[in-house]
Amino acid sequence: MRSDYLFTSESVSEGHPDKVSDQISDAIVDLMLSKDPEARVACETMTTTQRVILSGEIRCKPMYDDKNEEWAFNGGWAPGAKDEIERAVRSTVRDIGYEQDGFHWKTLNFENHLHGQSAHIAQGVDAGAEGSNKDEGAGDQGIMFGFACDETPDLMPATLDYSHKILERLATDRHSGAAPFLEPDAKSQITLRYKDGKPVACTAIVVSTQHAPGYDEGEKEAELHSYVKGVVSEILPDGFISDETIWHINPTGSFVIGGPDGDAGLTGRKIIVDTYGGASPHGGGAFSGKDPTKVDRSAAYITRYLAKNVVAAGLAKRCTIQIAYAIGVSEPLSLYVDTHGTCAENIDDAAIEDAIKNVGKLGGLTPRGIREHLGLNKPIYRVSAAYGHFGRKADGDLFPWERTDLVDELKAALG
After folding, report:
1. 68, 97, 258, 383: which has the fewest Cβ within 10 Å?
2. Per the residue annotation, which of 269, 297, 308, 368 is the catalytic one?
3. Is residue 16 annotated as part of the catalytic site, yes or no?
4. pLDDT tens for residues 1-18?
């Protein structure tokens, strides 16, 4: 690894059109799991000017007229189910803050094209009948990655961590009324200089935020720029910003039209923002809109959990973990650990792999074992769909993959 370099990560706000779509899709996941912890959901959302469109597959027993044991969709919607889904969509848009002519929670056009889950997928994922040896299989094939590093207290890459926190602060001030000139759509990007592998200075800052009319010239523009610089200066560590730092605040000029009115949004288009800002490999699968039988989501969570515990335990300064699954098969096909040459003395990557495999409480890293250990069959996902799934504070049922409760066991296993 190079020790001296520049690295950049970006984030997008809750009002970015793709993030609006992610939050809507996860609001549907939460709704289904609140009705049925074993619900299956694969919900895709498209947002554009005054329109939200849902599509995908679901299986949720209480939401339908359950006329056969397979929960096939030919039973149709249960009374009130479509209305409940539409309310979840509109309340999500309202909570983000969209009350604009081009996108308004109350007046937008809504289309629901969700239908029943494929029986062929269900038969591969479901556990066998009682007495059968078949455990629940993975909801899809694929590779998933988890990552952690010691660059920040959240054990996240600093470039992404600061990018998220800038936009979270903008959203907090917008919702509270402290910055009434802000609108929901925004993006940030931070470039840091690394020396000896550690971030030491910020060389470039980009913040683009949707704003009220008039804040693109004169004194109002200066007020907006001064506010953004103040927020960034509070988020970044002391000494990171200097006279050599390059600032780009709303570099295109006016940013009044934004959100889904300015650009169509789709679920799953911000997978690097959702994970590690490019500092780690990515398996390619998005998270939002998927129930936790989909290992794109649950296995990415467990690998983050494991990597974070490795770093929190002081076993390495940087840790990447890969895991792989086949659809319908419960046991993972492979587990790979790479600490990038940062292992503690007398420990190697293979030893960490063995220690992880022998953590009994993980249930062998099967989809069921992951869900049970982390408590993933709960309506906890909408809050994860903006400002990153990782580096957040574990709080009760929320963000359980951010806990560091394996530290002692991993230390003991590795002597």
Report:
1. 68
2. 269
3. yes
4. 688 999 999 999 999 999
